[in-house]
Every structure is written in structure tokens, then in C-alpha cells.
Amino acid sequence: MNSSEQRIKRLLFIELLAWWEGSVSNKQLQDEFAISRQQAYQDLKDYQQHCPDNLIAVNGGYQVSPQFSANYLSLDVAQYLQWFSTGSLMLAQQVNPLTSLLSIPKRSVSVVVMRQLIKAIRYQQRLEVDYVSLSNPENDGRIFHPHTFVNTGLRWHVRGYCEKSRDYRDLVLSRFSGEGDILGDSEHKVEDDKAWQTFILLIIQADPRLSAAQQAVLANDYQMEGGQLIINTRAALANYLLQELHINTKMLDSTPEAQQLVLVNINEVKPWLFNG
């Protein structure tokens, strides 16, 4: 990466934290890019000169301005969560005439609620929020103890302890509303989440109703060994993995070409599934 790309990446990082966390500091730039304090100061100065209405200087750093307008940021929460979960910053994708990417509709995520969720996860706090679901489409106040953001393939969830359900749950980010209020320290930690801390094996094979030749095609697709694919996963994520692989654990599709894959050890896995 040349110096110009490195500079753009640092300016993107400034916007990323300012927008999704509400503030950014010299220290965060120093830590993220292993640069000097002087370089971090210069980057923030350059950013302010280029985008004078986006940041407000405060003690210890800069807060996002109500007049913020993105210059380097996509405003897609996936860009922030990619960095939050992996430490990797996604720059704008280059167009390649030899490839094409599927464009999945983006879900609307409240930046105000995200800032509170990030703070609650980072400092292990409980949060009072409004949430809607298909089973309860009216605003439903909940006290939630978030611990991890989860990408299920098509959407982002946040996992944590829900006081209403009295158990650990996954809530869809796009279904939060309002602002959210931090209530104080959480007594329900990630270490107490049994389904998150438990790892299980998913043993998958081609639907035995397929011909031997068809089963061989799937075995090659998924690099199966001995006709089976074994996936080690957190129990809390098993349902999402099976959904991504289009494996129906409740009933077999009448057409094996549609079913394709089956879960061999369903009795062992079933207790961890949502409706197990």
C-alpha cells in the first residue's frame, strides 16, 4: 500500500470512529496504525481542513458534529463491524470487469443506538432499548446486556442477555429504535452465555437419496473427507450455519436435488437449535 492509500485509510478511520462511536482521538489513531503522536495530530488536522464541519474539538479528542457528512465512509454498518470484529478496514472496492458481486439490500441501522451498543459491549454495561420483532411489531422496551456482534451471513445481530426473556438472545440490529440508555454495569457476562461458550460438531453429508455421482459432486464442492464435512462451531451459531447451507432440520425436502445436504448428528445438535 502506497503512502497515498495509507493516508486515505487513516482518514477513513477518523470518519469511521467519529460516526459510529461518536468521537475519535489521537491515541486511537496512534494505536490503530502504529504511528507517532505528531503524525496522528497531523492527520486529524488535515481531516479538519478538508472536512471543517464534521468534527468538534473537545478535551481528549474530537466529537462528531451534527453537520457530519461522509467523505470516506460508506455509512453501511457492516464497514464498521468488519473493523470492530477483525481489525480490518474495508476501503472502497475496485471495479473489476472480470468479476461481479451480488448486491444484497442494506438494512437500516440507527447510528444513535449503535453508539450505545458499542459502549455497552466495550464497558460491559446494561442498556435499555426499544426493539421490534415480527412477533411483537410494536415498540417493546427491553433491558439488554450485549456482549458480541454476530454476522449471520445476510444480516448483523447483537448477542447478549435479555432481561425480558431471562436468557441470552440474538437481536437484529435493524430492529432497534430510539436512543438507548446506559443503566450501569452488567452482571451477565459473555462467560455466562452457555450456548456461546459451548462448541459442537456439525456432521454434514450429501443427501443419501442422491445418486453416487451426485453425492460425489457435493463431496468435491465442500471438500468432504470420507463423504462427510465436519464443522466445529459455537452452539449459538449452529442454527445460522445450517440456514446458510440450506439444511432443513425439521423435515426433508421431497426433492433430494433441492435438499442436497443433511445433518447426520441431528439428535446431538437439536437441543442447541432455536426450536430444538
Structure explained in plain terms:
This protein is α+β, with helices and mostly antiparallel strands and 276 residues long. The protein has helices at 3-21, 26-33, 37-50, 77-86, 111-122, 194-197, 212-221, 238-244, 256-259, 266-269; strands spanning 23-24, 55-58, 61-64, 125-131, 140-151, 156-162, 167-172, 176-185, 199-206, 228-234, 261-263. The chain has a 5-stranded antiparallel sheet with strand order 7-6-5-4-8. It has a 3-stranded antiparallel sheet with strand order 1-3-2. A hairpin with a 4-residue loop joins strand 5 and strand 6. It is globular and about 65 Å long. The chain starts with a helix and ends in a 7-residue tail after the last helix.
Topology:
Layout: H1 3-21, E1 23-24, H2 26-33, H3 37-50, E2 55-58, E3 61-64, H4 77-86, H5 111-122, E4 125-131, E5 140-151, E6 156-162, E7 167-172, E8 176-185, H6 194-197, E9 199-206, H7 212-221, E10 228-234, H8 238-244, H9 256-259, E11 261-263, H10 266-269
Antiparallel strand pairs: 1-3, 2-3, 4-5, 4-8, 5-6, 6-7, 9-10, 9-11
Features:
276 residues, alpha+beta, five-stranded antiparallel sheet, 25% strand, globular
The helix content, as a percent range, equals 25-40%
Count of helical segments? 10
Coarse shape:
globular
Q: What is the alpha-carbon Rg in Å? A: 22 Å
Strand content: 25-35%
Give the overall average pLDDT: 92
What's the story with the biggest beta sheet?
Answer: 5 strands, antiparallel
Uncertain runs are none
What's the number of extended β-strand segments?
A: 11
